[in-house]
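Reviewers of the previous submission asked for a worked example of the structure-prediction workflow described in the proposal, so we include one complete record here. The input consisted solely of the amino acid sequence. No template or homolog information was supplied to the procedure at any stage.
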Amino acid sequence: MDQNAAAISALQEYVKIEKPGYAFMIEAPWGAGKTHLVKHEFEDALSSDQARYISLNGISDRNAFRRALLVDASGARLTDAAGKLGDSIGSIMKLGNVGSLLQDAIEDRMINNLPNLLIFDDVERCEMSPGELLGLINEFVEHQRKNVVLCAFIERDYEDDENGKAKKRDDFLSRKEKVVGRTVRIVVDARNALPAFITAMPNGHGKEWFQSNNDLVLEVFSVEIHSNLRVLRQCLHDCGRVIDVLGDDLRDSTDAMIRFVRTYLVLSMAVATGDINSKQLRDRNDFNCVTKPGEENKPHPLYTCAENHPHAEIFAGNASSIISVDLGFSLIGIGYEEHNKINAILRATGQFSGKPSVPLWRRFVEWREMPKAELEKTYEEAWSYIFENEEIEPGPYLHVAHDLVLIAKDGFGNEDKIAKEIEDRIAALAKNDKIPVAAYGKNYGWTTETGRFSFGGYMFGPDGNTQPLIDAMKIAQINAFKSSSVEESDRLLDLFLKDLEAFGRELSWNDDGAGYYATAILHEIDAVEFAKAIFGYVTSGDFKAIGTQLRALADRHRSGSISEELVWTSEVKTALSSLAEEAGPLEKARMAWFLGFNWKFPAENGDGV
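From that input alone, the workflow returned the following structure tokens.
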């Protein structure tokens, strides 16, 4: 019999004893499930008023204690009403505080008629002194001979007494044996608690998803050092609400959903317990925060989180995580994001295939654990994917390539040959425009910033054979981006003409690097056409909006990292002046004012405006 089952059996035996003359205490850390246990075990008795549950949280004096005893009683409101009525009559007849006397009399009668089973929870959160509290409880134990159950967390790790906690703890422990005759300790049992948590969720896609994937939740929670079931329940329900609003195509993507939920739960529980604060959620794209620090430095909380949960996608640099920095901050740090935006951001990762089957790369990373027939079949799939498939995704491709090279090394002894053939295959795919672009020239969908290749929550350390493959893929993705720059510049110009605000978002800073804030792209746009668009905004009266946008574009140049655009900005300014000149003296004067106030781009040499 496990520890919790033994504790429940002891509790059940205790409540069967008539007039026991001692209290029974359940001791466990916060969030371990004490409240859930007693409410579950005595559900019928509580609902039929054969037992009374009393929370002592915040109770500071005898009157509050009395009110707590009756807070769930059917006559509690009646006593309040009687007290107010008595006070009114006493005031009219000048008889004094009649209401309080009447209310006390009614409460005394109700307290004397309390059920035989009393459950006092949150003992450690009571603000009364241990002596006073235990004295009040002992009235029911010794004099009224009721069955009394206490639920408490008596923290024994206090060494100093700065807050008086150690003194209060020691005082309680020295007195409790006069009241408490038996103490049992329970441990966190997420497996038994989880079904109730899921059942309590509102009906929807989230509830259905967790009913089919509770093992994932238990796996994540088993690593958590806080062992707080309240935190698990809250984060589970929060995640369920997100799943509720996801599109069918996203929820049908089995592997991507598992990765999303794993990462969400890990990050949300870390925030809920204070291991990570909301601001630190924005550090997920900084590889320094997820790499091992020097001996003299304290590890960043994200590093600890990533070490404890290696398959959670904590690091989000190069768009490598299934939950981007901004989305993670919105959902977990703030607690909300617009439903359509959640769906759009997740679809934009390209990792939600809409297929229920587990993708090849995810199966192949565990090739060592496959039965013989499955391994042989999967190996053939992997070989075909690398050397024959025309539709590839860089992250999965590099994972599969790495495992093929490993098998070649330890199985066939020809890893150099296989690695060279894969490198040649990448070159051939690139030549035929089959390599996906690096979004915004820098987001590959995978990363090596931490020193290890990472995609989908799985990593490997590059070696002499796999590093050239990673380099080749990176170069191919960058070249694919450069090849698409003309098409992309046309898209941006069209956006600039139709939706200035949306254009601004594409060029503004965000934590995910999902934009052109630090990537040169404007110089690919026709300078004269861009100038005509600006001129149109100015002459139509939208000079405030376009002026704000131009100053924001100039702000991108403060770092000096996108100097390729400076010749282009000079050409745009010249074209603007020409358009104003042709339009007449009034427009020429307005343009001189407009440029003087809004044109903050550095000059071609980077020195002036």
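The chain has four domains: 3-187, 191-356, 361-483, 485-598. We consider this example representative of the routine output the project will generate in years two and three.
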